[in-house]
Design goal:
By secondary structure, this protein is an alpha+beta fold. It is 43% helix and 14% strand. It has 15 helices and six strands. It has helices at residues 20-24, 27-38, 41-57, 68-84, 93-96, 122-125, 133-137, 141-147, 152-163, 168-174, 179-196, 209-224, 227-231, 252-260, 317-323; strands spanning 234-241, 248-250, 270-276, 279-287, 293-304, 307-314. A hairpin with a 2-residue loop joins β3 and β4 (279-287). The chain starts with 19 loop residues before the first helix and ends in a 17-residue tail after the last helix.
Length: 340
């Protein structure tokens, strides 16, 4: 994924026919690129599908002057820039307001799905489970949300240059501009990100045995609904957010009070482990009065320095659980997964 754009170039006179299979081999990395550009798992998949359709329809115009990969990225970039035209910036609850004290916490009406940066399954964006920390870090929720602060072309420049390691000349060719313009856009993008403060979060860490044990304790504490045990695992400034609601809270005491107050309906939940944005995640199922458990939230768990600094609970399970391959219902007898 970090290879330069000019890896496979062929002469126009000798360029062999491109097959559909060759196009499909680029789908996963293009999905990762479009996801970083758009901040939405579903829009990213739509953008990649549109890219593939345009590429296949225009395959006769591909003359091999650049690599197939570069050509596909050009199409994907144009698709994303069109989709971003006139759209509002996606964010996280922590980007929109101050934390809400538990005593005055009210969910209020949900905001539309287009307001939020959405989680993405690792299986859709990371080519291999053993990907480097840098690759996992580049899709973490905080960074994807931070990228949404950039103007679309600046966003493309920063992702291509700093995430995918393209040369400035390659980005200039893709965007039909100059190297000087690319370097200027990159400088402005870096300054904008620095001003937001959203890139100050700790980068993703490899999932060590210590972290696996921490996640096992988290799963156990949540399923037993032992809030003393669960909040003991949280960092002092841990956050809990629940898109599509803009309410969020900070600190173990407020999180505990919420979970034992308005969140008490989560008692008796079951958790199924999965992966999102290079981080461990859980499909949370609440007890169903008719038996078994029904989807309630996709929890994306941030882990750092042996603690949990963030619980991101996405409640749009009707769309997210199928995307992550999670069951739509758990029978009463089904045991929880144990592999993290």
């Amino acid at each position: 994924m970090s290879t330069s754009a000019s890896t496979t170039s062929a002469s126009p006179a000798t360029a062999p026919p491109v097959t559909e299979l060759q196009l499909e081999q680029h789908r996963k990395e293009l999905t990762g690129y479009c996801y970083r550009m758009l901040g939405s798992a579903f829009e990213a998949e739509d953008a990649v599908q549109e890219t593939m359709v345009r590429a296949w329809r225009g395959i006769d115009r591909f003359e091999g002057r650049s690599s197939l990969r570069s050509w596909l990225y050009r199409i994907a970039t144009n698709v994303c820039l069109t989709m971003l035209s006139g759209s509002s910036r996606r964010a996280r609850p922590m980007d929109l307001s101050s934390p809400t004290p538990t005593a005055s916490a009210v969910l209020g009406p949900p905001l539309p799905g287009t307001a939020w940066s959405e989680p993405m399954p690792d299986s859709r964006t990371l080519p291999d489970p053993a990907d480097t920390a840098e690759q996992r870090d580049s899709v973490r929720l905080a960074l994807v949300a931070a990228l949404q602060h950039l103007a679309p072309r600046q966003r493309a420049v920063l992702i291509l240059r700093e995430v995918l390691s393209w040369k400035a000349s390659e980005v200039a060719e893709l965007l039909d501009t100059t190297v000087a313009s690319v370097n200027s856009a990159l400088q402005r993008a870096r300054a904008t990100l620095a001003a937001t403060g959203l890139t100050e979060a700790d980068p993703a860490e490899p999932l060590s045995d210590e972290h696996k044990a921490l996640l096992s304790r988290y799963l156990d504490a949540f399923e037993r609904y032992d809030m003393d045990a669960l909040t003991a695992l949280l960092a002092e400034d841990a956050t809990l957010s629940m898109p599509p609601y803009d309410l969020w809270m900070r600190g173990p005491s407020d999180i505990r009070a919420w979970m034992l107050g308005q969140g008490i309906g989560c008692a008796g939940s079951r958790l199924i482990p999965t992966w999102a944005n290079g981080m461990p995640a859980f499909g949370q199922y609440r007890a169903d009065p008719d038996g078994g458990h029904t989807p309630w939230a996709l929890q994306v768990i941030e882990v750092s320095d042996g603690r949990v600094p963030g619980i991101n609970a996405f409640l749009d399970t009707a769309r997210l659980f199928p995307l992550f391959g999670l069951p739509t219902h758990l029978p009463q007898s089904q045991p929880a997964e144990e592999t993290l």
